[in-house]
Amino acid sequence: MARSVTLAAPAKLNLHLGIHPGRDDRGYHRADSIMVAVALADRVAVTEFDRRSSEDAARRVAPGSAPGAASGPSSRVCLAMSEDVGVATRDNTAWIAAMRMCREFGVSRDYQIEIEKNIPPQSGLGGSSSDAASVILALCSLWEVGASDERVVSVARSVGADVAFFLDPRPSYLVGAGDVLVESYPELGDVPILLVRPRAGVPTADAFGAFDERPASPRDARAMRDALSRGDLEAVCDGLYNNLGPAALRIVPEDAVVCEWLGRQEGVRGLCVTGSGSCVFAVCDTHERACDLAGHALDTQGWWSCATMTVGSGAQFC
Question: Looking at domain 3-55+74-184, which CATH architecture does it have?
Fold first, then answer.
């Protein structure tokens, strides 16, 4: 007998990202992070098998995918990706999330995880964190465990800084390493968003290394928090901020060209590098304008682009 749950794993944008100089004992920077989810998403399917089906589970890999399998002391997890993201199975956040959930809840079963990638890597869009959170949510559904259970949140925080956000991706303010929820805000609705990524990506570790070379204290997040509390989109657009962005621009100078190009386009209400880059997002005045600019960015500049919109709680469940 096999049971399966399929979820959308949405990308995220940082409306405010304030990185503080210095690292804690875990090697993390303190971060003030205000995030919102968007409709661009990977698809994550988690299938649970009984032990008699474990060999079949290991063979259930879609044609053309990049498979990997690894075992822990209790559960066995087979991971299949639609493309090779350059990460070994044991280092993949989705696999790590599954294994830690099984250990935390004492589950001894076999699982197949299949991930269809749509979120480009090394873009600051949180794809790997969202994939991990979707695996956690799928297991919660299979086990009838609440996503707000403190054990679930603890596992999410242990996997990565942004993973906890994706358990309930309402607009939210997080601190610590960007993994401790302070407060959430009313959903923004379907705000038109344009994503543009230059040809090169920015590895997260490289971005923080470049930040450490030229550290700068961030500005306070209060203005963005107040804007979201009021639902004031104009103030949100005016207050977009990321002090990790300059590090991304030094690593990928083409990011500056993307920002300059977007800044000249009619219908763009605000723009910013998201996360550690290299993706730049723009808030547009209409969905039609976002679509037009996405096509223009690809056709005239050769940049990956996507017209999307903001989403909120429950966005993962298909």
Answer: 2-Layer Sandwich (3.30)
Characterize 263-277 residue by residue with b for buried, 16 or more Cβ atoms within 10 angstroms of its Cβ, and e for exposed: eebebbbbbbbbbbb
- Options 32, 162, 168, 206, the catalytic residue: 162
Task: Report the DSSP beta bridge partners of residue 194.
Answer: 282, 307
Count CB neighbours of 38 within 10 A. Answer: 24
Q: Burial of 180 by CB count in 10 Å (0-12 exposed, 13-18 middle, 19+ buried)?
A: middle
CA angle centred on 261, ends 258 and 265, rounded to 5°: 135
pLDDT tens-digit profile, the chain (318 residues): 799 999 999 999 999 999 999 998 888 899 999 999 999 999 999 999 976 554 554 444 443 444 454 544 478 999 999 998 888 999 999 999 999 999 999 999 999 999 999 999 999 999 999 999 999 999 999 999 999 999 999 999 999 999 999 999 999 999 999 999 999 999 999 999 999 999 999 999 999 999 999 999 999 999 999 999 999 999 999 999 999 999 999 999 999 999 999 999 999 999 999 999 999 999 999 999 999 999 999 999 999 999 999 999 888 875
Please pick, among 12, 131, 179, 206, the residue that the annotation labels catalytic: 12
Q: Is 12 a catalytic residue?
A: yes
CATH architecture for residues 192-311: 2-Layer Sandwich (3.30)
117 is catalytic: no
The token duo for 111 is 């699982």
